[in-house]
Amino acid sequence: MELITRTELPVGQCEIKHSDTLMLFGSCFTENIGKKLLESKFRCDINPFGVLYNPMSILEALNQIIKKKVYTSDDIMESRGLWFSLMHHSSFSSYSKNMCLDNINRRIEIASDFILKTDWLVLTFGTARVYKWNENGCIVGNCHKLNEKLFSRSITDVDEIVSSYTKAIRDIRFINPDIKFLFTVSPIRHAKDGMHGNQISKSVLLLAIDRICTLNDNCYYFPSYEIMMDELRDYRFYADDMLHLSDKAVDYIWEKFSETYFSGNTMDAIKACKEITRALAHKPFNPDSDAYRSFLSQILLKIETLKEKFTYLDVEKEIELCRTLLKK
Questions:
Q1: Domain at 21-262: CATH architecture
Q2: Mind giving me the DSSP string for 194-209?
Q3: Residue-level pLDDT at 1
Q4: How far apart are CA 312 and CA 18, in angstroms?
């Protein structure tokens, strides 16, 4: 008996391989999926500006990366002794102006190089509502808990998102012609505007992405929002705030993501990586015993065999850890 409404997955539409590089931008859900990708040994650059929620802030971050923007003192501000950028997450903030600028500029430099060789740009839109800094009318990425009177809040128009991203896709493909785009809408609800307001916002995002994918080649949509709303329609799949996803929900959506984009060989590699990670996390009763050394040798052999089969897997840390433990 089928007890849930299944979401139709775009299986067979395209494939993501371990040999691909991925760049991810967006909301907290981006961090969730990005972590899963890293654990599965994919090569990723995740949120070079930190978490961003709306498509226009993500777009500005992409534009700055393409142009290799260098931040100066004029691009950051100070409040309560802390220096920060309105385009960046608080993780870039610092009580030192120079450290704040160094953190931002170093990250943009890394991302500017990475986007040139990126195979997949994965964009997760969380809300269509934006905040504009009243002083210059620019859309910000983070308000840093400043007085709300310093900002103006509005909802972005579908046509504006579509036209802006169609141009951005063209600009990005000028420097990286083979890049592919994967869009998704975050299943995390933005309750500040109420549930009806959240639905309106998500609807704008869904309409915009659908049109972007229709107008542009090699642009795809993954239904993470629909999976959460239809297949996981139960509060046991939410965190304590009843808005964010529980670990079980993230795991479930990751399984659907894997089913959609990974081949059998890729899934075999992911499974092998998980087994190795689990084995290396094992706490031995006697780390000096011959039995434990034999155990480590077997793990090292498995890693080297895996590396021979999947030459593009980055397992150097695991190899080094095994060798270090064997030398003790």
A1: 3-Layer(aba) Sandwich (3.40)
A2: HHHHHHHHHHHHHHHH
A3: 64
A4: 7
